[in-house]
Design goal:
alpha+beta, 26% helix, four-stranded mixed β-sheet
Length: 106
């Protein structure tokens, strides 16, 4: 089955004292919310949400990336799921306030 878009939501968990951990910062809950939202809207046959390994965007977490667009989001909260689904996944307009700009220094 070919999907139009993939949403990879980081769920990586790290030991205490290491880099920020998306998994410890509600990454799994984000996966569940995206899957539910896509299913409820009948989009789960066109758009897939899944958990990958680490996205190496730990300092920006919880992080996710939308492909094939290559847009990374950081600091994503459960309350952001609806906007990402509606604005980006359905209407192809990234949610700028959450987009990670890797070129900016932290």
């Amino acid at each position: 089955m070919k999907f139009e878009k993939h949403v990879f939501i980081c769920t990586n968990e790290r030991a205490a004292g290491e880099r920020k951990s998306c998994g410890n910062a509600h990454g799994l809950e984000l996966v569940k919310c995206f899957k539910k939202q896509l299913k409820d809207l009948g989009l789960n046959t066109k758009i897939r949400a899944q958990q990958p390994g680490c996205l190496d965007a730990c300092e920006h977490g919880p992080a996710l990336v939308v492909y094939p667009d290559g847009v990374f989001y950081g600091g994503v909260e459960i309350s952001d799921v609806d906007q990402i689904v509606n604005d980006h996944l359905i209407n192809n307009k990234p949610v700028e306030r959450l987009v990670i700009n890797f070129n900016e220094s932290d």
